[in-house]
Amino acid sequence: MLKRYTTKLNLFFFTLIFLIYLFAGAHLFSFIEQPTERIIINEMSKTRKDFLEKYPCVKDDDFESFIVTLLDANKHGVDARTNFTT
Fold first, then answer.
1. What is the pLDDT at residue 25?
2. Residue 77: which region, alpha, beta or left (left: phi > 0; alpha: psi -120 to 50)?
3. How much is the pLDDT for 1?
4. What does the alpha-carbon distance between residue 4 and residue 67 come to, in Å, rounded to a whole number?
């Protein structure tokens, strides 16, 4: 009886330690990547703003729809840089 209790207790503590290890690793990774992520987000926002200012005939909603289509195609392995007109 004591052995079964000890085994369950060990499993509980190993699981708890493992989960703490995972969360600590995720937090550390997020902390390390955060400055780079902010830079990329700022660059993307600036690029989007500059594009919409340069081409005022493109509506924001249409541009958003175009980006979603490109990202969906990329997710399925289609390279958006490919010239489909030839």
1. 97
2. left
3. 58
4. 57
- At 86 the three-state DSSP class reads coil
DSSP 15-84: HHHHHHHHHHHHHHHHHHHHHHHHHHHHHHHHHHHHHHHH-TTS-HHHHHHHHHHHHHHHHTT--TTS-T
Q: What tens digit of pLDDT does each residue of 2-34 get?
A: 677 788 899 999 999 999 999 999 999 999 999
d(CA 62, CA 75): 20
pLDDT band at 79 (very low <50, low <70, confident <90, very high): confident
State both tokens at 85: 């007109």
The sign of the CA dihedral 43, 49, 55, 60 is positive
Cα–Cα dist 17/10, whole Å: 10
